[in-house]
Amino acid sequence: xxxxxxxxTVYFPYERMYPEQYTYMLELxxxxxxxxxxxxxxxxxxGKTVTLLSLITSYQLQHPEVGKLVYCTRxxxxxxKVLEELKNLVKFREEDAGVKAPILALGxxxxxxxxxxxxxxxxxxxxxxxxxxxxxxxxxxxEKATVGDAGDGGSASGEGGGAxxxxxxxxxxxxxxxxxxxxxxxVYTLDDLKVFxxxxxxxxxxxxxxxxSYANVIVYNYQYMLDPKVSxxxxxxxxxxxVVVFDEAHNxxxxxxxxxxxxxxxxxxxxxxxxxxxLKNKIEDAKATDAQRLSDEYNRLVRGLxxxxxxxxxxxxxxxxxxxxxxxxxxxxxxxxxxxxxxxAFLRRFVDHLKERLGCQAFxxxxxxxxxxxxxxxxxxxxxxLKFCYDRLQSLMKTLEIVDTDDYYGLSLVADFGTLVxxxxxxxxxxxxxxxxxxxxxxxxxxxxxxxxxxxxxRPVFEKFxxxxxxxxTLSPIDLxxxxxxxxxxxxxxxxxxxARDCICPVILTKGADQMxxxxxxxxxxxxxxxxNYGKLLVDLSAVVPDGIVCFFVSYLYMDSIVSQWxxxxxxxxxxxxxxxxxxxxxxxxxxxxxDNYRRACDCGRGAIFFSVARGKVAEGIDFDRHYGRCVVMFxxxxxxxxxRILRARLEYLRETFQISESDFLAFDAVRQAAQCVGRVIRxxxxxxxxxxxxxxxxxxxxxxxxxGWITKHIQHGNLNLSEDMLIQVAAQFMRSMAQPFDQRANxxxxxxxxxxxxxxxxxxxx
Length: 767
Known about the structure:
Layout: E1 2-5, E2 8-11, H1 19-33, E3 38-41, H2 48-62, E4 69-73, H3 76-95, E5 104-108, H4 111-114, H5 118-121, H6 126-137, H7 139-152, H8 169-177, E6 186-188, H9 190-200, H10 204-211, E7 217-221, H11 223-226, H12 228-234, E8 243-246, H13 252-259, E9 262-265, H14 266-289, H15 291-303, H16 340-358, E10 364-366, H17 368-379, H18 383-387, H19 389-399, H20 409-423, E11 428-435, E12 443-451, H21 455-464, E13 467-472, H22 481-485, E14 491-494, E15 504-511, H23 528-544, E16 548-553, H24 556-569, H25 571-578, E17 580-583, H26 588-603, E18 608-613, H27 617-621, E19 631-635, H28 645-658, H29 662-678, E20 689-694, H30 701-704, H31 709-712, E21 722-723, H32 724-739, H33 744-749, H34 754-761
Parallel strand pairs: 3-13, 3-14, 4-7, 4-8, 5-6, 5-7, 8-13, 15-20, 15-21, 16-18, 16-19, 17-18, 19-20
Antiparallel strand pairs: 1-2, 9-12, 10-11, 11-12
Helix pairs in contact: 1-2, 2-3, 9-10, 13-21, 14-15, 14-16, 14-20, 15-19, 23-24, 23-25, 23-32
């Protein structure tokens, strides 16, 4: 449909829309009009993606001064879903609404997901794909291959020795076209780009990177915007007028923290030591064969790394500086690390110091200032030299023409660590742990540079772009996000869900059939009575709930413990009389196979139960819509491991800096994870599902009130404090009522037609 939203003509690819979609568009428009940021919570299954795309692309059409739409997602499947929705929208605009404005939209992901070179894409990890790509596309490799072809038919040996220089035909063809290598207007998913690349014999990855400057809509991962190492390469040239959307952003603070945190283990430091030795040998070789290269680099460093000009766009590019752009020093590299051999000695002293610190037998926690004081007293390394550590290493790797960068991964992490610890004196903590407290008998020493302030990584985004949209189905309590991200949104709104029938049934289980309380609280979680009551709940549910049931536990350790005890008690055998059981593990391949078989069991009518973990991959990215999820059980309150020293340091920082109490943040974090888990079962208004919060603590107002409004609105007063036998009655009654024939016309009655929208625009609500 085509309708007016205040003074904006909106193109929406469906004949009707939900009232909350209209309200969402209105709030989003007010944010764009004010050229400010907004925070919007919209229930799952209400068409948030198409609503965002319709409003913002319509706004771009009417306001040409507005820049690109940069849509940030967490996973590749989410990216593909966004682009498919956009295809439908563009088709409607062109075919039904007659709008002839061409649009270019594309997705961008890593080389691993976009490469079409047969040998490169067969590499296992992302790092090895990147390294193999560099071996084929780096400028000096291509230059040597050209010289070799001219001189002796391509027999020049590569860095590994012996073999002829092989090039990537797709990259060569793309480079040969120069400015003619462009994408015609259209909407391109990753698969579309790969097909286009194979047809034209162009590299889809570098083509997409090049076309970002010309695109109207870009869809990519959070890291491309938030991680300084990646954003400086990909997002640096985006104009201020862009509209940036972070979808499914309930965990955006954790993404920001991960982007600026580094962990170093024993094997990482051993790898770094080997890398230093390799680099030292290469420097000696370079001195003997091409000393001018090292001399040129020295002169360049005297002038300053920041004055080298634009980052090269060829295959040899490295990730950028891990520090935020405004914190990178714009001056010459210190004299003590300009010469390559001096820099190697500097790195060796630094790595040896880290190894010594890693050998401690007790837990240690300190801020960057005290770490640097001890480092300076022990090794004479100062903070200023450390700030240049990553850039200096990057410069040396390019000078030595090294392309197998995955072999130097450990040294790169050490340089990351050094640059960050030398740059920031607040908002970070260095924590050294000789073993994991949960497994004290297993030595696993680690040095963790942990970012404590999530606002650091996202601050450049808020400052650079005039409109940033943070949205998700589970942002409650929504007023905490402006504090922890340290920004000032012009619009904050949490929307409710309009339903033709009560198709979601949230309930709180506080006690078992024996009236004993149930909880995953530390003092109760191993109580055989609690374990038995949880097991009996699942046995009885498996008898009354059809098709699929999804269960979430607070951790892998707790899930393993409780499933083992259920097996000993015979409860698992009773469950499997009714449904098959599948379990998420920490192995991606095993979990993918388990999910596939779970769906097959639901499809064939056998029914199944899937055991999963809050904060895991399944909880964050897999939908259990329709018969794949008729009931979801959240066993316990998924608090973080509260004895974690990193968490304790972050809580202390939040209390001192933002005046957020420990209990408030822990409850906020736990309840948003629980809401994310139970929200997996409702993906449309035609869907239905039972949501069970199986812990007595959810009955307390301080927990319950932190759940999203669209969930709490449907918790009936009688379902706030149920025992197991009462819950089974509620479940059976709910499933019977949902099994009755449903008149789809009732769903249409809550939808808004084009005529009703016109009436609302005139101030008359016609229903």
